[in-house]
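User: Can you recover a sequence for this backbone? Please restate the input before giving your answer.

Assistant: Of course. Working from this structure:
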C-alpha cells in the first residue's frame, strides 16, 4: 500500500536503518555529538536564531509556544482543526483568546489581522498555521507577520509550520516561533517536535513557563547539546539521517522545487479530470479535492489500486480527500496516484478512462524539469 496521507508520511529506508542501532544513553559524549550535528543542520533548515527539539508530537510545540510566548491575550486564526487548536490551548491555560474564524478553504488576510490587533491592545501574540492541513490551505503568513511587526514590533508571531517546514522555503524574518513536527514533512516516525525561535522570542521567554515545556530550561540545555529530560535519542538519530539524506539528494532547495512542481502537476492532473481543488489558496504540502464521492474514491484507491489517501475531518468528513505531497516522493509513485484517481472515476462511471491524468501530470511535471531556466515561482 502506498502511504499518501499528509502525515504520517513514509520514512526513507536509509533513515529507518540509521534508527535500527542499539539504544544509546542520552548523557554520553557519543550521543551529544549526534545531537550537535542534528542541531547544526536544524539551524540551516529552520533559518531561525535559536532551535529546540521537544519529545512530543507537534501539538506539544504548539502548546510550548503559546504558554511561553503569550502572556496576556492570544489572537488565533481558526480556518481548520489546527488553527482551532491554538485557541483551545490558550483556553486550557486560562489565557484569553480572540479568534478569527474562516471556512476551511479561505485564507486569512493581512487587513483582518491588523484590524483585530488594533481593536485590542492586550493581544501580545498571534498564532497561525502556514499550511492548515485540515483543508490543505496556505495562509499568507510571511506577509501577515511583516505587517504585524510593522504595527506592533513587540508582538510575538507563532507560525505552525508542521506541514510547511521541509515543503517550501519560509521567510522567517518576522516570525518568532516556527514549529515543525517529525511525522509530516520531515519523514520521521511521530514523536519529535521542533521549535525555531527568534532572539526576541528567547528574550520574551525569560525564565520560561510551565515545567516540561519550559522553553528556558530547554534552550539552556540544548545550547550544551543535551536536553532537560531524556532525549528521544532514536528520533534525533533519525533526524540527523533525514537531513543528511536531503543533502545527499541535492539539498533543501531541490526538495522544495520538486515538491512545488509535483504539487502543481497533481492539481493540474486532477483538475483536468473535472475534479475541484478545495482550498482557495492551496498549500504545497497536499492536494485537496472536494467531491461528493470523496469516500467512494478513497475506498477504491485503497481496495483496487493500493493507495492510501486521507479524508476530511469534522464537517468535511466524506466531502474531501487529501493527497500528500510532503517528503522525498518518487515521481512514478505520484504518477500512479493520479492515474489511480482517474481509474477510480472510471469505475464510478464518472468519465471514460483515457489516460488524461497521467498525460497532464507528465506534461506539467517534466516540462519545467527539462527547461534549463527554473520557474521562479516553483524554485524560489
Ligand atoms: C499534524 C498537525 C499538527 C498536530 O501535530 P500532532 O503531531 O498530531 O500533534 C499541527 N498542525 C498542523 C498544521 C498539522 O498538520
Amino acid at each position: 500500500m502506498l502511504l499518501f496521507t499528509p502525515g504520517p508520511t513514509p520514512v526513507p529506508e536509509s533513515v529507518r536503518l540509521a534508527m535500527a542501532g542499539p539504544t544509546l544513553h542520552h548523557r554520553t559524549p557519543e550521543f551529544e555529538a549526534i545531537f550537535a550535528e542534528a542541531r547544526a543542520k536544524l539551524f540551516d533548515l529552520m533559518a531561525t536564531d535559536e532551535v529546540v527539539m521537544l519529545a512530543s508530537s507537534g501539538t506539544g510545540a504548539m502548546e510550548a509556544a503559546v504558554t511561553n510566548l503569550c502572556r496576556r491575550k492570544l489572537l488565533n486564526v481558526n480556518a481548520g482543526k489546527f488553527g482551532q487548536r491554538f485557541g483551545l490551548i490558550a483556553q486550557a491555560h486560562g489565557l484569553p483568546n480572540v479568534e478569527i474564524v474562516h471556512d476551511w478553504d479561505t485564507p486569512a488576510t493581512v487587513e483582518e489581522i491588523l484590524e483585530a490587533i488594533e481593536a485590542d491592545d492586550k493581544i501580545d501574540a498571534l498564532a497561525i498555521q502556514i499550511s492548515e492541513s485540515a483543508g490543505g490551505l496556505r495562509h499568507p503568513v510571511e506577509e501577515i507577520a511583516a505587517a504585524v511587526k510593522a504595527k506592533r514590533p513587540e508582538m510575538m508571531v507563532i507560525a505552525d509550520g508542521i506541514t510547511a517546514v521541509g515543503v517550501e522555503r519560509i521567510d522567517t524574518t518576522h516570525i518568532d516561533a516556527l514549529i515543525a513536527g517529525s511525522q509530516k514533512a520531515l519523514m520521521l516516525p511521530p514523536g519529535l517536535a521542533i521549535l525555531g525561535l527568534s532572539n526576541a522570542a528567547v528574550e520574551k521567554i525569560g525564565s520560561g513557563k510551565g515545567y516540561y515545556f519550559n522553553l528556558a530550561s530547554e534552550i539552556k540545555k540544548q545550547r550544551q547539546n543535551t536536553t532537560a529530560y531524556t532525549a528521544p535519542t532514536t528520533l534525533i538519530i533519525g533526524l540527523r539521517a533525514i537531513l543528511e539524506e536531503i543533502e545527499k539528494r541535492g539539498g533543501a532547495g531541490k526538495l522544495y522545487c520538486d515538491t512545488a512542481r509535483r504539487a502543481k502537476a497533481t492539481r493540474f492532473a486532477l483538475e483536468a479530470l473535472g475534479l475541484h481543488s478545495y482550498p482557495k489558496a492551496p498549500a504545497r504540502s497536499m492536494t485537496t479535492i472536494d467531491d461528493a464521492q470523496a469516500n467512494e474514491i478513497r475506498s477504491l484507491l485503497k481496495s483496487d489500486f493500493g493507495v492510501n489517501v486521507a479524508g476530511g475531518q469534522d464537517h468535511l468528513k466524506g466531502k474531501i480527500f487529501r493527497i500528500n505531497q510532503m517528503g522525498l516522493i518518487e515521481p512514478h509513485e505520484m504518477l500512479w496516484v493520479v492515474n489511480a484517481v482517474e481509474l477510480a472515476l472510471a469505475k464510478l462511471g464518472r468519465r471514460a478512462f483515457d489516460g488524461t491524468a497521467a498525460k497532464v501530470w507528465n506534461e506539467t511535471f517534466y516540462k519545467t524539469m527539462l527547461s534549463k531556466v527554473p520557474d521562479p515561482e516553483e524554485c524560489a
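That completes the design. The mean pLDDT is 97.
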